[in-house]
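User: I'm preparing a small set of examples for a lab meeting where we compare how different chains pack in three dimensions. I only have the primary sequence for this one, and I'd like the structure in token form so I can line it up with the others. Please keep the answer compact; I'll paste it straight into my notes.
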Amino acid sequence: MKRSILIIDDIKEQAEGLEKGLKKTLSNDFQVWSVHKEEAILDSIDNNYFSLAIVDLRMDEYSFDGISLIRKIIERNPFAKIIVVSAFKGEYFNQLKDIILTGRILDIQDKDSLPVWLPKLKATIESYHSELFSAPSEINIALLDYYSESKNLNDTYQKGEKFEHFVSLLFQSIGYGTVKKRVIDRSLNEVDLIIRNEIDDSFLNKFGKYILVECKNKPRQKIDKNTFIVFNNKLKNTNGLSEFGVLATTGFLTRNTYLEAIRDSGENRKIIFLSNHEFERLINSNNKLETFKGIIDEQVKDN
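Assistant: Understood. Below is the structure token output for the 303-residue chain.
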């Protein structure tokens, strides 16, 4: 997991000014970026990992305000806390009361000149991350809640969506920052998740620029070799941009699926399987990156 700060403000100069100030103030352990356009704000909340969001409440020109964005963050990202920033807190007092009860609001701060504000903001950010990284069990509990909820839902569409979101969060907890959902290429092939392979790790960097993930939330069903073949063809169609795929399932894999993986093992591409056992190991691990690499090692050896 990374220390990653997302700044949301509808005014470009303020968003970029705060980004620049925090980059100068915080150590290189922190990734800081800002968004100010409506589409970019929504895309960042849905598809990017961040451990902390700094959200301005008032957004007069947009179809949403800071309150609705905070609710979306709470729903989509169980890892992130939020610093609320506004000169108009009185206008949002009743709505803020409900949000504070979620326990996800780290602080509510007034905007001030950067020389005055940055030291206070720096102290709040560093204190929170120090506690977060000393208590990984909180992250594990959040992942377990999402995983169990995705398996227990009855509605087929909701099950699929919830499971994709769980897998996205799991990869973000490993250290991947950008996970795109439901990507359709020009041949109309749909990939559930595309992960930018950006972790600075010589072992993982061998697998190409992107990781493709297929998600199957069907606890009572087995994944057969046809599912493997279809997914493998999606990897082939990336023209070498991705040589690594993950077939994730809450169900089971047939023996024919493993045999097909062995038959295909002479290719440069590699597909690994994440099912209940692997999910349990990753959820409970306090070093998810090393656990993930260990799972890859085992499956490369086995198939």
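A couple of notes for your slides: The longest strand covers residues 190-196. The chain has two domains: 3-134, 138-302.

User: Perfect, thanks.
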